[in-house]
Structures are given as C-alpha cells and as structure tokens.
C-alpha cells in the first residue's frame, strides 16, 4: 500500500522500483505482428472474414479463387497495421527524446548529468528554469526565498496559468550545499493517477531536523511533464518514475465510443448473418438432396455416393457459406472509416465554427462518432463558461446592511462605497481585507503594473475589485501576504489554508496579523454554507435578502465572514488539523471534519455579487436546438436562483404563463420523496397542456433522489424536458448523464472545466468548450468548440449530414453485396444446387473494392437540404433522432430492392443469353455489367445533389469498369480472355443492359416519385420549398426572405402522448423505432414516414 | 495535431508570433461546391417515362422483327431414335449397348426460305454443364500445351488406373457429345456440313495448343461398362483442330443450351424436305435429358429469341401507361409543392390550436 522513498539512498538495490524509462508505445518489434493481429481479430467482423478466407483455402469447396477474399482482407489488415505501426513509431520517437534528455542528478554526493531514463526513485534532481520535470518528485529546495516555485501544468490538466509549489516546511531555507547532504524518508502511497492528491509524509534524518513527520500535499510536488517557470532552479527527490508517475498512470486511451448507427449496423449485420446461415442451411439441404437423387443420374459428373468421403454432406453447405459470405461486405468498415474521417475533417475545416477572438477552430478529436451528433436527444450543459463567458466582473456588494451598486449598476463606481472606503468605515475595511486575503491569488509584478494570476475567475475578480477599492494585494510568499491600503502596509502571516472543495463550498484562511499578533479566520463561500455557520445571534436577514436579490439578477453571489480566534483555541485545533492533513488515507474527508470544528460562530460581513455575462448567441442556439426537439438539462455548481436566472435569460425555461418551474427540494429522505411525488403528480396532470415545464433540483436533494428514489427520479427525468440541477458535484453530473443514458436517450454533454470532464466522458457525445477554465474539458471531449453557439451548427449541419450520409452508405453497402449474392443464389438453382459461382474471382473482388466503393464515397458531399433551410427548420432533425433513415424498416426496403434487382438482372440475362449464346463466361459478364449499371443508377437516384466530384465519381467508375475489363480481357491465360470484346460487339448485350436498367429502376423511380409528391415527408416538403424559393427569387424580387421558417407561431412542446392521437399517425410495419417513439413523449406530432429505401 | 491540415495560415501579412489556426477557405472544405439539385418533379418524371416509352417501343418492334426473321427448325429426337423402347431402363441399356445399331433417320421440312449459312446446333436439355464438379474439371495449362502432363483440378478424370495422365483431362472433355448428323436434301443429294470455324477463334489460337490426345482416349478402363464417357478423339489430330471438343468445352451457363455442330453453306428453299441420319450415341437417358437438332439462320441479334422484343414492347407500353397515369393524376389532383402545412410540426400546431378552442 505504501512506498518508502529514502532520499539519496545509494545502497538501494536497483530494480525495487522501475527506472525512469517512459514507454508509451503499444508494441515492440517482436510482439507487433501477433499483438496487432490479435487486436484486429478481436472484432467479430474480422474473425468472420478470416474464417471465410481460411475455408476458401480448401479447394474442394471454394467456389472462387481464394485471392478474392484474401486480397481485400490482407489489404485491409495491412492498412490498419501500417497505420498502427506508424503511430507507434511516432510515440517511440517521442519517448526516446524524453528518455535521453540529460538531467542533473546527485550521485554519491556529486552532481552529474545523466539521461532521464536512468533516474532512480530517491535520486535528487536539479531543474532549471523552463525545464520539463522528468518524473514525479517532491520539492526540496528552490532558488526563491520562502521556498516557492512556479510551474506550468498544462500538459497535465490543460491549465495554462502558473501554479505555485512550495518546499515542505522542514526543508525551507536549506542551502544548495545542505541539499547535497540531505537524508530522509518519504512515506507515500503506491502510485495512482489522481493528479490532485498526494497524501504523503516526510521525515528528515538528523542532523537536518527533529524526528517530526511533516505532511506533504500535491502542492509540494512537481509532476512529470510540468514545466518549471520563473524560478532559477528547483531541486527535488524522485518518488514516482517512468510509467508509474501520475501522468503515466492516467494515460491510456479511453474506451472507444460506438454510435447509435454503429449499433444499428451491428444489429443489421447480425440479422444478415442469421439470414445467411438460414440460406446456407436451406441450400445445403437442397443441394445434398439433389446430389443424392439427380446427382446420381448425371453420370458425367461421376458423383457416387459410395466412393464419397464421409464429410461429403458438409461440402455443399460450406460451399454455399463461401458463396454467400459476400452478403456481409468486407468493404463496409473501410468505407465507413474513410467517410467518417472526412466528416470530421469537415468539422475541423468549418470556417463558421472558427472563433476569431480566441483563434480556436472546432476540432473533432473523435473521428468516428460524427453521426451521433445528429441523433442527440438530450443536451446536458454546464453553465459557467459554457453558457456564460466566464469573464467575472465584481458588480454589487452588500456590507453592513447597505447594498452598494444599486444606483450605478456597478459597485466599483458607486460614490457611496467610495466614500465609505475613504471614511474607513470599519465594516467596509474588514470586508475589503477579507476580499484581499481570503484567496490563493498570486500577484505578479510585470513592468511596474500589478497583475493577478488566479486559478479561479471569481477570486481574481474579488482581488481586482479590492485593489480597485485601494485594498491592494501586492505580494504573496509561502507563508505571508502583503496588503497595501492607501499606503498603509499590512503584513499577515498565513497560518493555515482551509481549502475550497466542491463538497465544502467555502474556503477559509487563518492568518496572524503581524502588527497586532492577533489570529483571525477569514472565510468566503456559498451563502448557504456560510449562513449555517454564522454566529446564531447575528442578524443575517439583510444579507439573505441581498443575496436573493442578486441571484435573481443572475449574479454569482458569495458571502464573506470572519472570526477572531483565541491563541489557545487555534493551537488545539491546529494540532488536529495537522494530524488530519498528514493522514495518508481519507485525508480529504478528515480535513473537512476538522475544518468544521473551527468554522463556527462566524461574523457575517456581507455578500458580493459577480456578474458572468452570457456568451453571444446562447439564447438563439438554445431556442433553435429546442425546436429541433433536443431537451436541455443544465447542470451547474452555482446556486439555485442564479441558475434559474441564467436559465430564464437564455431561453432555457420560459417565464410564466408558458413555462412553469417545479421545485424538488428537501433535506431529508421524506421531504425529498414527498416533493418528488408532488412534482410528478403535477407533471402527469399537466402533460396534455402545451406548457413548458421544467424542474429544479439542488445537489442535496439530488443526492437523496439518486440514492433512494431512483425510479421516481427516472420517471421525472423522462417526463420533463428541461431540468436545472444546481449545486451539483462533478460526480453527480456524470451520474445524471448516466441516468439519461439509461433511459435510452442519446446524450450530449457540453462543458468547459475540469469539473465537466467526467460528464463529458460519460456522455455519448462529449463536447468541450476551449474556455478560460483551461483546456481540460476540450481535451477529454470528442469535439471541442470555441463557443457554445457553434453547437447549433455542429449538431444541425454536421451531425445531421453525417447521419444521413452514413445511413445511406451503410445500407447501400449491404444492398450491393446482397445483390450479387442473390444472383449467385438464383444461379445455384439452375446449376444443380452445386454451389457454382456465376461470377469469376476477379470480378467478385473488384466489385466490392473498386466498382461499388468509389461512386458511393462521393456521398460525403451530398446534402439533402441546404444549410440555411436546416437552420431555419430545425425540427427536421427529428428524422435523425428517431433514426428514420436507418432502421429495420428502411433496411427491409434495401433488402427488397436488392432481391428485386437481382431477379431482374438474373432473369433478363438468362433469357437474352439463352440457347446458343449461353456461354458461362459471357453470361457472367453480362450479369455483372448489369449490376454495375444498376449501381450507377441507384447511387444518383439516392443522392440529392450533384457536384463535380459526384459526377466524376459515378461516370468515371463506369468508364473504369470497362477499361479494367478490357484490360483483363487481353490477358491470354485468363478465363475472361476476349470475353469483354465479344460481348461489347453484340447488340444483344447493350439491349440487355438497357432493359435491366429500365426494368430495375423504373418501379423504384415511380415509387420514389409517388412518395415524393403524394406522400411527402418533411424533408421532401422542404426540398420542394427550396426549389420554389429559388425560382421565386430568380423571377421576382422577393419582398420577404424566401427561406423563411415554416414555423407558424411558437410551438410549445406538447408532452401529450394519448393513445387516440397515436392511432391517427401513420406508422409502418417493421419499424423498430416505433416503440422508441412511443417512449418519447412527443410521438404524436412526429409523423412517421419510413419511405427511405426501395 | 488533428488540425494540421487546416492550420496552415494564409494570413502571412500579420506578423503574429503564433500561426493562426484559422482553417483555410475552399469550396471543398466548406462543402460549398457548386451543385445541381434535381428534384423528382412531375414534369421530369412524366418526361422520363414518356421518353422510355418512345424509345422502347420502336426498339422492341425492331428486335421482334429481327427475331421473327430468323427461320428455325427444331427437331426433338431423343425418343424417336430409341427403337420404340418406352421405359427409361430399356433406353438406358440400349444406349449403353455398344453393339446396338443406333442410327435413325429423321425428316425435316423447311418452313421458309433459309439463306446460307444455315447453322446446325444440337440442343441438350437438363444437362448441367454448369455443375460445380463439372465446370472446374479441366486444366487450361494442359489444354494450352504448356504442361502436357499437368492434370491438377481434373479429378476424377485426371489419371488412368495406372497413373498415366489423361490428355485432355477432366470431366468436360471426357463427356464430349458424340451424336453425329448427316444431312441430305430430297432423296439422295448430300448436304455438306462445314465443321471448320465453329469454335471461337481465340479459343483455337490461345486456349488450345497443338498437343495430341493421349492414346485410347477416353479412359474408361477403371469404371464399369455403364460409364463409358462421351466421344472419342482422333489421337493424331492436335487439340486445337478438334473443334467439336473446343465448342463442347465452352461450358454452358444453363442446363438447356445449344452448341454449334456445323454450318450448311447452301440456301434451303421453302418446302424442301431434308433427311437427317442421326447416330444416337450420347447417353442422356439416365438423367432424362432431352436432345434436339436445330437448324437456324441468324440475324444481327443472333438466333431466334423473341424475349428482347416482347420485353421491350411490354416495358415501353407500361412506361407510356405510367406516364399517362402520372399525367392524369397530376392534372386532376395537383399537389401544391412545398406547402408548409404539410410539415408535421405545423399540422400539429394547427391541431393543438384547434383543440384549444
């Protein structure tokens, strides 16, 4: 459980702990091939293809040349293996660079330069300014007075501001010489990946200090991959090395996410597999029956039961298995991967999602899940920094019953407050002092002007405001602060910092004023946590009212309090605190317990209010996305009234009477339960009213609801489209995402800060705002954006198009494979059910890899509707959310189409090429050309628009087909020798092709036309409208914008789901999403048209 | 790293320290390529179906005429030439009896003038040349003469009982069709049958080499008498001159097929009677296959086959009909395209508005 690190222990046998060699590589030269193959074969599809390929090596059963499967299979494997190898080589190069960096290390009392990979646990390392930290180490000394140093941790948590790290107290003041001789032991936990905690103890051996333990925290460490900044040198002892560092352990790829479409494709592939097995069994039985009856009579094949080996009965089914193996197209994965990476490139390239101010383009980190964006049903959003700018400005305050800033709108310019400061009213001075002291802000002097570096935007705003009111924090050392008030220097010694945690929601600093030697505790925090610990005799009323008032204006409030401490009280508490903070297990909890002991009987000074502006375009974005049927949940750490205020101002909830807010509250189980039930009753009752109902819950009640009333809460979550959850912790955010996911909704989580990372990783799609709270969220996310408003475009444009394209591509891939397979099956009925392949090996291979892959890839440029139309009619997203374009019903359409087309190709071919023309090789090429021509018509019919790329892809492919086949026909020893020349000279060939195309496409076209004009779905209507608008604007100067929104009046989102209305809705058979749309409360007003396919 | 394609700045004028990450503009990257968006409007669709009709009906007529211009005489003889044996067993034992006389005479009437060349085909029914065991049972290398003793893939007709390679090996060659026909016009004028050039030129030149069949071909020793295989090959003629074999080895795709037997380079006049002396050697009786003798002229489309003509006419008429239906429906019941009230969400808005009143 624990590791004991002896500082500069040269006797330590190497090998107890690993050396500092970093290895991020997945493979090495020896294990690359087996490991990579093993990984590739862990996918079902690949296993299946390998099995097929192996079966084909048995010449008795293979209908075609094994190369037709081995070729593409090896190609696909080689491509992905090469990609892996290339990536891994890149990682190896980076590792090598890091490992061979030279580092000053103390060896046997002498400073020597060694390579970073040779660092051992216990070594003392010297770092210079701007050096990268090679391993996790405990700081022992720095060049700065007071034993502090600054680090940049952006490689670990993405935050670019400088952080302070301090030398542990026993080592403060040690000179460089002494550091050469230092001996001691550090007791630290076994390596873990929590970069916020380091619960360890250190004891120096005599003569350095007494035998006292000193507790260490993360503030005493330098973690691997941080950079030393603004510090001449720092020295420390290595505690975790190599891949056992905190960074090394937290590395590793997150679980790959699968999209809903992927799941659907898997399901459909499974269905095809079952269908294939059924076909194989039927044909196998039929084939064996034929062999045993007719087969005995056809003497010319010498098919004798007696001389046949025992496994003969297996041969025919296996042959059919191989013949039908093309039903599951080997190319589908490759084509999907390819187009998906193009989608993500489109996201990266999109100029309309580029934020000029911060120079941030949108980035798709996860290239595989773009189409899930189009199916999002729930968006769970953070508030601060996501909906708001996260630029804090101190606006109001309330000190001693007087609210400042009411008249001017800004407390900093309120003459009353300025006068109060000038008059040095004691309450105001105290208030400002707390503002200046109670924080972790580091003042930095740069060229005469004072700037503040803070981890929290709120703190920075408070310190800035205090400085503006002449209470200037000018210096911070490891143990003290200097505050300048109108030339009056105030020195305070910091005794303890009771840190802010999301559970405590307050922070306190215990200081000793050097002038008066008095100990004081200053506290700031959320109002409810402060008010509960205020001295019971104090009047809190005015402050509570002020806080209420501020939060209704959407301001972030904070209460400020203070307390004088007696020397004895502090000393006795201090011991407990030390003990708690040096405990190795459960430290956080123990510290919180101890903190509570002293944080009582505070004197409330007042409240501050900080404004956080809404980001531009947030209300419109939310309105549009809500029209698209996306439900919003706001998960914020902020207080309830602020959250509600922000929610109102950004269209999140509607004011009365259109909207209604229901509160779920309570402190105990019973209260929460009753409240939940009441809210549920109201919701059920009002479900028919066109009213926008949202519920509000706070973290406390949420905890109870999630633990004890999960079922009720789930129902509530499903009934209510909008929710505001305030005061929630990062864990609860992730829990809420999980809850919505469990109800079978596609979720998107969007956030900007470290507290959103878990929710972003948990959701189906995680979106990070590259905001001011660092890049942590953006790094963990699948997509990162510069601003919240780009979400509209990301979902409605990129998500929707990606979904449409993937839906077509995947179903088309199956269709074209099935087409060929059905022809083979039909042919087996005229070839004695013996498993003869009509098509030759080359054609089979080229069909999937070339002829049918190229044209359909151009779908990446297809758009069914123009971007403006989609943005103005966001309701159209319903098609994607309900999975209208790929589901068992549409798939059945494609299945039927392939069956029909196969029948057309087969029947026309065998009738035209009957009698004296019925040569096998010729007929094979006629049927094959028929398939290619049908493809060349199906693809354009399903596409909605034609750019030059599409035209080149489709026509070029036809040309390619003939060029390739003419070339192959020139090969003398090939089976196809001269075939293509012969058939192209026959008028019958061209007549047959024309007939196949017209019979094949005629009914499809007629049906499509009929639906398009007489049973149009919403997409069709909008397409018509686009056309009309285009012609209208070209003929007459349109007075109003031709592409107005079709939305007649605001449509409140009805939650009705009465059975009667459901009945009137056209719901086709074979519709899997029927059940899911019933589940969705909005089913009735979604008219269901499953017309795609066929 | 994922934006490296996009991050190259075009903003060179600004002396910024960091390169701008602004993506480059191009119509491709912004998905703004110029495009045409055809819609299935009534006009287009009716026009398409009309055009199909207008094009297909004449084509159908022409092809049907071409097919009807072909004169064809089909004479079934598998039952006529078995000396009145009725049961299959009798027929089978007759055909397998190597001593029996299998000659039979058949009279054909010429129904119409047949211009030279008149093609002679034999047609087999219910014969599976496309059977998996059969179609692969050959060795192209051997046939080409590249490797005379190569017999891989030829099982079960690869080697003789004593291990000698069979040449040509395989089931296809072994089962060579061996009925023969002799034609005479009227009473005794012999009609010469030209058997040169009945196979594909490319086959003679590139697929079959100048190798000679193995002596005593076909190999029938290992099997009992009931399995005697098909035709014999002249051991002194190289394979590329044995055109019957070359034709036979172009395997047929369907169980009913015709293969060219020869050509009569002489016009046949209407009403002439042609007598054919058939050597009925080939065993189709075990599997109940049919044998037919076909004399046919040819057209630009090939032999007599009215399928294309009828199909084109039918499709043409149907598509005209559809065009008419669409036209009528469109004019009787014009749909205002792009009416926003068709949108489900607007309809719902109406519904809820109505129900609210």
TrEMBL record, chain A:
Subcellular location: Endomembrane system; Membrane
Positions with a binding annotation for ATP: 382-384, 459, 500, 524, 556, 636-638, 727, 733, 755-756
Cofactor dependency: Mg(2+)
Pfam families: Cation_ATPase, E1-E2_ATPase, PhoLip_ATPase_C, PhoLip_ATPase_N
Active site, UniProt feature: 382
Catalytic activity: ATP + H2O + phospholipidSide 1 = ADP + phosphate + phospholipidSide 2
GO-annotated cellular components: membrane
Translocase keyword on record: yes
P-type ATPase N-terminal domain residues: 16-70
Keyword list, A-Z: ATP-binding, Magnesium, Membrane, Metal-binding, Nucleotide-binding, Translocase, Transmembrane, Transmembrane helix
E.C. numbers: 7.6.2.1
Tree of life domain: Eukaryota
Membrane-spanning segments: 268-290, 310-332, 818-839, 894-914, 949-968, 989-1010
Residues annotated as binding Mg(2+): 382, 384, 752, 756
Similarity field: Belongs to the cation transport ATPase (P-type) (TC 3.A.3) family. Type IV subfamily.
Name of protein: Phospholipid-transporting ATPase
Automatic annotation (TrEMBL), chain B:
Polar residues composition-biased segments: 1-11
GO cellular component annotations of the record: membrane
Location in or out of the cell: Membrane
Transmembrane regions listed in the UniProt entry: 44-66, 310-331
Pfam families (alphabetical): CDC50
Spans annotated as Disordered: 1-25
Topological category with respect to the lipid bilayer: Multi-pass membrane protein
UniProt keywords, alphabetically: Membrane, Transmembrane, Transmembrane helix
Keyword Transmembrane: yes
Keyword Membrane attached: yes
Chief site of localization: membrane
Leader peptide range in chain numbering: none
Stretches of the chain forming a coiled coil according to its record: none
Family, similarity comment: Belongs to the CDC50/LEM3 family.
Name of the featured protein: ALA-interacting subunit
Originating organism: Riccia fluitans
């Amino acid at each position: 459980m624990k590791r004991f690190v002896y500082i500069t222990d040269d006797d330590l046998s190497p090998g107890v702990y690993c050396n500092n060699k970093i290895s991020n590589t997945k493979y090495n030269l020896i294990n690359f091939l087996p490991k990579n193959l093993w990984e590739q074969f862990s996918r079902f599809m690949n296993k299946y293809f390998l099995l097929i390929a192996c079966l084909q090596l048995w010449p008795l059963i293979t209908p075609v040349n094994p190369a037709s499967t081995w070729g593409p299979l090896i190609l696909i494997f080689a491509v992905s293996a090469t990609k892996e190898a290339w990536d891994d080589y890149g990682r190896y190069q980076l590792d090598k660079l890091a490992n061979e960096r030279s580092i000053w290390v103390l060896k046997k009392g002498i400073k020597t330069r060694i390579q970073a990979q040779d660092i051992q646990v216990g070594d003392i390392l010297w770092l210079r300014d701007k050096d990268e930290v090679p391993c996790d180490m405990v700081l022992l000394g720095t060049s700065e007075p007071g034993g502090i140093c600054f680090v940049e941790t952006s490689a670990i948590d993405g935050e670019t501001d400088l952080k302070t790290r301090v030398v542990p107290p026993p080592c403060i003041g040690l000179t460089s010489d002494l550091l050469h001789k230092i001996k001691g032991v550090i007791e630290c936990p076994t390596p873990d990946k929590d970069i916020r905690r380091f619960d360890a103890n250190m004891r120096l051996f005599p003569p350095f200090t007494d035998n006292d333990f000193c507790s260490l925290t993360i503030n005493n460490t330098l973690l691997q991959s941080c950079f030393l900044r603004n510090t001449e040198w720092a020295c420390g002892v290595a505690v975790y090395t190599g891949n056992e560092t905190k960074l090394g352990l937290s590395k590793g790829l997150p679980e790959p996410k699968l999209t809903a479409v992927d799941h659907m494709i898997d399901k459909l592939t499974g269905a095809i597999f079952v269908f294939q097995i059924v076909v194989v069994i039927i044909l196998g039985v039929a084939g064996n029956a034929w062999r045993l009856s007719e087969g005995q009579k056809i003497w010319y094949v010498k098919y004798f039961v007696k001389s046949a080996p025992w496994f003969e009965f297996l041969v025919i089914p296996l042959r059919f298995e191989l013949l039908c193996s093309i039903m599951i197209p080997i190319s589908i994965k490759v084509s999907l991967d390819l187009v998906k990476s193009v989608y993500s490139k489109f996201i990266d390239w999109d100029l309309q999602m580029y934020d000029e101010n911060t120079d941030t383009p949108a980035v798709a980190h996860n290239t595989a899940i773009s189409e899930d964006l189009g199916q999002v049903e729930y968006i769970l959003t953070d508030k601060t920094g996501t909906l708001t700018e996260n630029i804090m400005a101190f606006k109001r305050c309330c000190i001693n019953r007087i609210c400042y800033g009411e008249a001017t709108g800004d407390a900093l310019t309120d003459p009353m407050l300025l006068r109060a400061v000038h008059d040095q009213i004691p309450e105001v001075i105290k208030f400002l002092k707390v503002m200046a002291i109670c924080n972790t802000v580091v003042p930095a002097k740069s060229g005469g002007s004072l700037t503040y570096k803070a981890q929290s935007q709120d703190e920075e705003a408070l310190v800035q405001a205090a400085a503006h009111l002449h209470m200037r924090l000018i210096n911070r050392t490891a143990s003290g602060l200097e505050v300048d008030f109108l030339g009056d220097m105030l020195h305070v010694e910091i005794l303890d910092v009771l840190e802010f945690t999301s559970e405590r929601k307050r922070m306190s600093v215990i200081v000793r004023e050097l002038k008066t030697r008095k100990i004081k505790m200053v506290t700031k925090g959320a109002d409810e946590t402060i008010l509960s610990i205020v001295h019971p005799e104090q009047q809190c009323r005015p402050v509570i009212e002020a806080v209420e008032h501020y939060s209704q204006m959407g301001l972030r409030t904070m209460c400020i309090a203070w307390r004088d401490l007696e020397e004895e009280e502090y000393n006795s508490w201090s011991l407990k605190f030390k003990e708690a903070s040096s405990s190795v297990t459960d430290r956080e909890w123990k510290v919180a317990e101890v903190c509570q002991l002293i944080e009582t009987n505070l004197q409330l000074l007042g409240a501050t209010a900080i404004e956080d502006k809404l980001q531009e375009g947030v209300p419109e974005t939310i309105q549009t996305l809500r029209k698209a049927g996306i439900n919003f949940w706001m998960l914020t750490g902020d207080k309830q009234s602020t959250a509600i205020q922000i929610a109102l101002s950004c269209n999140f909830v509607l004011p009365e009477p259109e909207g209604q807010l229901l509160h779920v509250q309570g402190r105990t189980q019973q209260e929460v339960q009753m409240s939940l039930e009441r809210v549920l009753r109201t919701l059920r009752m009002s479900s028919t009213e066109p009213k926008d109902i949202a519920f509000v819950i706070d973290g406390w009640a949420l905890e109870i609801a999630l633990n004890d009333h999960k079922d009720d809460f789930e129902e509530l979550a499903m009934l209510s489209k909008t929710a505001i959850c305030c005061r929630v912790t990062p864990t609860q955010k992730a829990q809420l995402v999980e809850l919505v996911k469990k109800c079978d909704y596609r979720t998107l989580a969007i956030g900007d800060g470290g507290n959103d990372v878990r929710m972003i990783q948990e959701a189906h799609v995680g979106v990070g705002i590259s905001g001011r709270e660092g890049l942590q969220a953006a790094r963990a996310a699948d997509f990162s954006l510069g601003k919240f408003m780009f979400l509209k475009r990301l979902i409605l444009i990129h998500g929707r198009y990606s979904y449409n394209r993937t839906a077509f591509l995947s179903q088309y891939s199956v269709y074209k494979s099935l087409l060929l397979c059905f022809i083979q099956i039909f042919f087996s009925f005229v070839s004695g059910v013996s498993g003869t392949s009509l098509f030759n090996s080359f054609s089979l291979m080229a069909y999937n890899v070339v002829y049918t892959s190229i044209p359909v890839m151009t779908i990446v440029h297809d758009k069914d509707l123009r971007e403006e139309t989609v943005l103005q009619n966001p309701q159209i997203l319903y098609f994607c959310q309900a999975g209208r374009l790929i589901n068992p019903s549409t798939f059945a359409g494609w299945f039927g189409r392939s069956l029909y087309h196969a029948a057309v190709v087969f029947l026309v071919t065998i009738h035209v090429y009957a009698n004296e023309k019925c040569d096998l090789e010729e007929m094979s090429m006629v049927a094959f050309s028929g398939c290619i021509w049908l493809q060349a018509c199906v693809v354009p019919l399903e596409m909605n628009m034609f750019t030059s790329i599409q035209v080149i892809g489709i026509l070029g492919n036809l040309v390619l087909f003939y060029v390739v086949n003419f070339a192959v026909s020139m090969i003398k020893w090939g089976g196809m020798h001269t075939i293509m020349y012969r058939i192209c000279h026959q008028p019958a060939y061209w007549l047959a092709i024309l007939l196949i195309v017209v019979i094949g496409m005629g009914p499809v076209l007629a049906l499509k036309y009929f639906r398009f004009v007489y049973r149009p779905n919403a997409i069709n209507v909008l397409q018509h409208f686009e056309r009309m608008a285009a012609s209208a604007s070209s003929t007459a100067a349109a007075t109003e914008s031709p592409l107005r929104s079709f939305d007649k009046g605001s449509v409140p989102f009805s939650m009705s789901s009465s059975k009667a209305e459901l009945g009137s809705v056209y719901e086709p058979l074979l519709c899997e999403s029927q059940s899911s749309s019933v589940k969705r409360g909005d089913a009735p007003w979604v008219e269901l048209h499953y017309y795609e396919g066929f | 790293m994922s934006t490296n394609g996009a991050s190259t700045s075009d903003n060179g004028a600004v002396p910024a320290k960091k390169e701008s990450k602004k993506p480059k503009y191009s119509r491709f990257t912004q998905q703004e390529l110029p495009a045409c968006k055809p819609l299935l409007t009534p006009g287009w669709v009716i026009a398409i179906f009309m055009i199909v009709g207008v094009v297909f009906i004449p084509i159908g007529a022409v092809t049907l005429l071409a097919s009807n211009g072909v004169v064809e005489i089909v004479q079934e003889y598998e039952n006529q030439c078995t000396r009145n044996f009725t049961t299959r067993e009798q027929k089978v034992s007759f055909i397998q009896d190597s001593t029996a006389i299998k000659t039979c005479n058949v009279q054909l009437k010429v129904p119409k003038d047949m211009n030279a060349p008149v093609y002679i085909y034999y047609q087999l029914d219910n014969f599976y040349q496309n059977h998996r065991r059969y179609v692969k049972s050959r060795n192209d290398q051997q046939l080409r003469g590249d490797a005379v003793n190569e017999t891989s893939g030829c099982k079960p007709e690869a080697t003789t009982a004593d291990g000698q390679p069979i040449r040509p090996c395989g089931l296809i060659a072994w089962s060579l069709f061996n009925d023969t026909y002799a034609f005479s016009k009227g009473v005794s004028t012999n009609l010469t049958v030209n058997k040169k050039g009945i196979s594909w030129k490319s086959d003679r030149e590139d697929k079959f080499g100048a190798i000679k069949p193995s002596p005593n071909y076909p190999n029938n020793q290992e099997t009992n008498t009931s399995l005697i295989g098909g035709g014999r090959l002249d051991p002194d003629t190289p394979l590329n001159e044995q055109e019957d074999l070359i034709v036979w080895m172009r395997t047929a795709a369907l169980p009913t097929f015709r293969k060219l037997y020869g050509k009569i380079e002489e016009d046949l006049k209407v009403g002439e009677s042609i007598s054919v002396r058939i050597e009925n050697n080939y065993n189709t009786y075990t599997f109940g296959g049919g044998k037919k003798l076909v004399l046919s002229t040819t057209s630009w489309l090939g032999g007599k086959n009215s399928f294309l003509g009828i199909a084109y006419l039918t499709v043409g008429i149907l598509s005209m009909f559809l065009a008419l239906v669409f036209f009528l429906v469109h004019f009787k019941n014009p749909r205002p395209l792009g009416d926003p009230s068709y949108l489900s969400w607007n309809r719902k808005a109406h519904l809820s508005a109505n129900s609210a009143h």
